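Final report, results section. Input specification for complex C-07:
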Amino acid sequence: MRQSKLFTKTQKDAPKDEISVNAQMLARAGFTDKLMAGVYTYLPLGFRALKKIENIIREEMENAGGQEILMPSLQPKENWTVTGRWETMDDLYKVTDKSGKEFALGPTHEEIIVPLAKKFISSYKDLPLYLFQIQNKFRMELRAKSGLLRGREFLMKDLYSFHKDEADLNEYYEKMKGAYRNIFEKAGVGGITYITFASGGSFSKYSHEFQTVTSAGEDTIYLCESCRVAVNKEMRDEQDSCPVCGNKNLTEKRSIEVGNIFNLKTKFSDAFGLSYKDENGKERPVLMGCYGIGLGRLLGAIVEVHHDAKGMVWPEKVAPYLAHLINIADSSNVADNLYDELSAIGVEVLYDDRGNKSPGEKFADSDLLGMPNRVVISDKTIEAGKYEIKKRSEKEVKLISRDELLNMFKKK
Amino acid sequence: MRQSKLFTKTQKDAPKDEISVNAQMLARAGFTDKLMAGVYTYLPLGFRALKKIENIIREEMENAGGQEILMPSLQPKENWTVTGRWETMDDLYKVTDKSGKEFALGPTHEEIIVPLAKKFISSYKDLPLYLFQIQNKFRMELRAKSGLLRGREFLMKDLYSFHKDEADLNEYYEKMKGAYRNIFEKAGVGGITYITFASGGSFSKYSHEFQTVTSAGEDTIYLCESCRVAVNKEMRDEQDSCPVCGNKNLTEKRSIEVGNIFNLKTKFSDAFGLSYKDENGKERPVLMGCYGIGLGRLLGAIVEVHHDAKGMVWPEKVAPYLAHLINIADSSNVADNLYDELSAIGVEVLYDDRGNKSPGEKFADSDLLGMPNRVVISDKTIEAGKYEIKKRSEKEVKLISRDELLNMFKKK
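Structure output:
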């Protein structure tokens, strides 16, 4: 992408109404635009990062046997009265049409997927089953103030698993923990994201959250450094030691919940009468698990974790572009050629070809946007027959040959 | 995908409340599930077809210079009062939150994109600009009865173009016609989709629709067979001849509007004060075009056009799977191996490995699902050392060798 054609421009100052680092940096860099509190437009660079996250998640869900579907946001009231959540869910947006019919804007999809699954599940032969979607959710957050960390409208991946017994559910639940670890590893927050024991609600002792440690977090967790698991503050009274090793010397940390997984058991199956015939012809309730990740929240968490005073520092697998090519030479010939060459071999390059910006402005923008690799073409590098390369996360600047440069990017 | 693991099963009978062919066949084949009138879940096979359509559209929009973004569905009332459409748009869903704040559920996105563009467009140097998204739209259709052809909630691609003058807008408008022709060609409805002159509303003499001729259509058009353009019935009084050649001998046809493009001129720029400084520093209004395609409607139209009494007949580029591999031999060894081999070289295969279905049931399902190529493995084909292949759109059955088979699919 030639930066001269890019829709967005960077801004010196963050919007006055944004207090979180992720919202400030994403706005300044032109990744997102705030339409209102908790509701954001993804602009071209932000959209690319979002798509990278989406594809990482999709790949892991498919590897775990998930079949992708797409359920509606507009949902009949009747489905929500079955579970009682029409009345009890505080943050449910409700819509009435001209004929007086009432709808919910889906904040989650158990009320839709369970009656759907019921149409196709009748025998033990239909189980297990794993369905997922990546779809907008709506929640009436009246005081959304944490940028992408807490939205009124936000993209979420939700997978629902259906099982014949608890052993099968538990096995898949453990498998999904592994899939989540892979996702957060690829997204660049693996090392600081902890499986956290949280309240299981009315149906289970625990649920599990994936909490990314950062001072920007809205949650508080108590971390067992040796087991690398944590306890959510909400569970602290019931669970004052590490659930794995019993260690009582836990460290308090602020964190962002980037994913959660629930053992739903038969809570929703019971409500909708979702059952199956076992090997002996006996009718049994289906057991369920559900597994969520907010895509925008993960994107916001990545920014909270990976930034410095100058801007964002994108991990390679989620960066909008792998390389930021910057021309500060008098002629654009060498940079144009390199841009064409890298593009031709499939390297994603943002090319700062702008003629009306000083080298200083270009470097400042590059640091703010935070692509993982910066390549600079100057009159000096042209004279030396080399290319200047610098990782956003490092200080060292290197001069390398054309072959070294191409090899470096080809591998990724 | 092994069909034994597939979430959905086929149904003999169509749901009683569906009257359109697309809704009946898609439901019977397990491609979609109706949640309520005009609101559908895409099930795994339907979701794959939807994604194919999405990717065809995205590729053409990117080729036309479009930068992809994602705007919210939840939109502040304030934006809609600026254009007056809060009051005048009949099918607008309105939501009120607990604090009394009112929102629209976006039926289109001019009210969001124009104020957004205003933040980044100030000079002629920022133009032209092309932004698009693929996002849910909501329209309060009280009598939705045509399956995917008319939804209350539906995925749409909308591109908005911004220009400094009419010549530039007109040039891009023509380019977009070409992009749309490519999309409908790839989607398998190119030969029967006609550029149709329709009302331009308050701001232009004409808009242009892309109308796919089928008896299932809700629209009526008058077709000039020699120019291959049409006039929408709504324009018939003003335009009783072919707008290209003047021919008055037009043929009446039923059709589905699969896309439309509008020359918006300065209608929305004026409302929001979107202007730019020209080369002489003079402030001028930005001209706009907008270009829509409903993804679900296109999917429904493809089914209306490409089916026979036995089921759907998917064009290759939008088929959920390129091949339907069916094992009716006693052993599954040969079929298992072929499935693995085709999957390994990236061929998308649905593999009917079900042990509890008769050959007759498998063939009937295969015709209903409508994958473009059927490969049958039977004891006879194994004995002959061949594979039986049949195109869904043809009657001829061929026996071919393993190499011929692999070569056939490799090319695609």
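The mean pLDDT of chain A is 96. Chain A touches chain B through 47 residues (CB under 8 Å). This concludes the modelling results for the funded period.
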